Amino acid sequence: MDKCGNGDPLDMADKSSFLLVPGQSKPRYNSLCSDDELLEDEGDLGYEPVPDKRDLWIEDYSSLPSSQNSICLPITGQVLARPPKADSAPQLTPVIKMGWLDKNPPQGSLIYQRRWVKLDADYLRYFDNEKDIYSKRIIPTSSITGVANVGDQKFEVVTHNRTFLFRAESDSERNEWVSVLQDMTGPARTRVSRELTLNPLVTCEMKGYLELRGLRSKLYTVVCGDKVFLYKNAEDYKLGIGITSIDMNVGNVKDMDRRAFDLTTPYRIFSFVAETDQLKDQWMEAMRNSIAEALSNYEVAEKIWGEPANQKCADCDATKPEWAAINLCVVFCKRCAGEHRGLGPSISKVRSLKMDKKVWTDDLIQLFLLVGNDRANHFWAANVPPSEALSACSSSEERRRFITAKYREGKYRRYHALFGNQKELDNALCINVQSNDVCETLALVFCGADVNCDTGNPDLSSPAALAMHHGQNLQVEFLTQNRNTEIPRSEVKIAVHAEHYMAPPSITHNGFLFKTASMARPITERKNKEEFSRRWCVLNDGNFNYYESDKIATPNGGLKMREIVCLAVSPPETHGYDHSFEIYSDAERLYLFGTDNPETMREWVKSIAKSFIPACAEDLLQKDFERIGRLRYKDPLNLESSKVGWFCLVASTLHVCLEDGHGQETIHLQKLLELSRDNEVLVLVERGRTLYIEGERKLDFYGWASAIERAAGSSGDTLSQQQLTEADIPVIVERCIHYITQYGLTSEGIYRKSGVNSKIAALLEAFRRDARSVWLKEGEQQVDDVSNVLKRFFRDIEEGLFSQQAHNWLSTTAVSDESRRISQYQLLFNNLPRVNKATLRTLVNHLYCVQRFSEMNQMNLHNLAIVFGPTLFQTDGKDYNAGRVVEDLIQHYITIFHVNEQQLKTQLDEITYIIKLRDNLNPKTGPASGDFICTVYLEEKKETAEQHVKIPAAMTAAELTFEILDRRKITVKEKDYWCCFEVNEKEEIERPLHYQERVLPILHSLGTDSHLLVKKNYSMEAMLVYLASKVDVTKHGMLKFREEKSLLGLTTGSFNDRYFMLNQTSFRLYKDVRSNRAEKEWPVKCLKVYQGIKKKLRPPTCWGLTVAYGSDKTEKQEKQQWYLCCDTQTEMREWFATFLSIQHAGLLWPAEWVKSRAASRSAPLDTRLGNVSLIPLRGTENEMRNSVAAFTADPLSLLGNL
Ligand SMILES: [Zn+2]
User: Fold this and answer.
1) From the CA of 78, how far away is ligand 1's center (Å)?
2) What is the pTM of this model?
């Protein structure tokens, strides 16, 4: 294996020879895709050789420096001609380590595979051999979560869901791999390399499946930036683990016949076939764009590399460095760039040669050609002790130390003769900038000459102006880039953290502000004007300082912009000054500033935000935010490590730029499913996503958490200011309606009877505080209290449900022609604001359902109209117009709201089902566990894994499982058998619900010791395999059996061997094999089989089943329960599988699990609607009027008597 940096010529020759592409004319066909799993045995993969071109290329290639450029190769010192374009190297990123390793065998095989493995800053790749250009597997280093030594010269590389096992030839070799991999993927490292690859310009242009000629399965192909990536499937793409990447700077796209096209490279032809003609055009276009991008990306790099010294990293000598510090005039490699970034932009302004195309003006490029790494190092690295020098293989730690010493401390610089003499330095600078000697300027500036010094010439007051006057553009360029550079100081030894990407510091702002003393705790009370002092504040490229006055040169204090973690704008008139804002620092200090001028305030806020928000989050700056800053967060896919995100709060919307996200995302806080604060973690649950925001520091986290909680609450008293559901219905309305639907439809006089006033008020208050946290539970709330909460909510809501249009609705009742009246209502309905519309529709749907069950609840159309007319229109109920509107809406519900009658029928069926179910349950038995809002856990029972799910009557276990997985954004794969389990903690048993099983009846039957848990069913695969092998699903055999016997209130019993037979109808127990008469017999359908036996019973093996027997028909009080123990796990699984198979007619698992998931998602969630004849309106107009006239001002107090 290559050792680093030794100059042994033999060694070198050896290495160079690996790096050559094979001269053999027949390429290896199977090297690309025949990896471990699916793609093993194809004969001819259809990579066509390109003999002529290949040979040519090889000729060229051999005359060039190795462009594989292992940075471990010895440096020859010789600079060769620039490579031709097509050859700007298949791999520009320097290789950090490579060598032969054995990879663990694919499943089922015992033979290790020998692989050529290469590691660079971005990827770990392995190849069939050292000559291959295209890998068999490509693993981004950023997705590696761990690297561990596992003995026997082996080590494993762990990614989020896959572990790769490698074996080296020796322990030392293995240790080297582990250490270099750990260094590459350690937490700090990952962060830096992610930031460096985080480039908004690189977007994924096109992705999808493409057939690669000769392969049986299609490959998931992604055109992204200047590369094309091939993945085995979309799943792998999401996980980031690919087969190979194709650098498009050497690519060419050719149209072939029909749906085929070729991507040719000097090494291989990829013959693709698109799914349609149209897609083929799109693919070809996307790949051509990618080639164009690749070529243009190299434009700047090629120019900069025109100076031979720039072809090696200024710090570690790695070849083809792609990054530069535009103020220091050095070019360096990606790994060194990470450390430069850590110095902060006031020391090193890091830019990419490939990606930051815009900064590379002609002058800047010329400057880099003029200075170049050699001349720059003549200054920066004049005195490097050999022991401290970096090599291309140095670790991150070594780099950090060296680069900090070199540029922050100036430890190795060549001291200028004038060093220490400020006046002379400045003077020398002013003279020198008039010449073209930029290197001298560089030496002067980095030894302390002030680029902003006074030239003594009022017309050309700065060195830059002098240089400009003398036509020295490159001097001007250099001075401009260093306007705000911190001069190296050897005494400064600050711990350097490459924490986060910093914005380019080019913001300047100054003026007077009023400031209080900084604080270490949140501001809770108003600060009067007297507590503020007037300060001259200067924001200048990365520093914010405040001074006693604008005449004084020494600041009173200040902070660096990179220390700012949050900026919050207070509402006007919070403090003595009308406008104020707070700055939170890294060091847990809070600074409060005020002014009476809104314009001043706006400008300061803008400038400060601009100077600490990085480019990757700059979109946030466009917002009229009240709070902006950085927070750490976690997502459920990777709870171990947290990442940095940029957040900005605008009213009730949280805008976020996440480290791994794609641009800016928005979270509507009023529509969250859940918001909770758990110590120092704020949990935001949206449909399809959960975000954990962590309190890295207390002070700003506290501010954020309170602001987010406030924003997620109701912001006012109108409908649209309430906490809303995804369907734009106030949460309070939805929860009340669901509760009444579940428990109140059979309650006589529902909505008419009054509840208990104090309870109603308390519940309403709880809803107003945070509707999302109110879970209505049977037993805790009475239906009449809940129904009155709903009514009172509508009565109190500002602007009312019908908004400003109320009088138009009321006057519509005068239209006598029914169809004209209906269309008038439709018109009015369509003109309602969004939230009002959704709410009205939902409410009328609910009232429609209520009156459909009026035989039980006595609330017919008329009665409901009497109650809801005055409530919704907020009138006194003296005339019946309001009631008429409600009556019309309910009666013509289907027409006015364009209701799908089939859906309405389904909804009514469900309600009937719920009513029946509840009738059957003895309300006296069992605790109040029948919440229709149910708590379900994911993977384990703990608070953070808790989800509240509404369980509609028709919901199946599979649907519930999907709902939970969706919410937590969990990707489901074909062989992941996610199931919903019924878990009984007291009995220590569990049972996977059958996927078609309805959840609601189970919920109603669960005791307090039980809960629902969604997790993977690890025995499912084995059970399916077992069942597939059986022709006739029956089973018999010996089991250890124990029956619970109750003697004098004590349960006793022991396990005894018994012979059992299980067939399609019954489960029989025999005393022994020879018995011909069963001692006991149970119908299989009436058995509930659970896995597990509680330990207290001392089961003889750990493979037990608990069986409950209860007949559906008889309401027997006694429930039989007994226990079976198997000798092995396999045996237990077989019994269990047989039970399930018989009970569910052989269907244990849906044939197309993943597809059924998609189907369940697209199924309409909205289950309102149907065609049912309406209950006729009873009574004449007069009778109705009389009944309403009986009401006085407060209908609530009267309704109870109706
Ligand atoms: Zn380097």
Assistant:
1) 18
2) 0.44
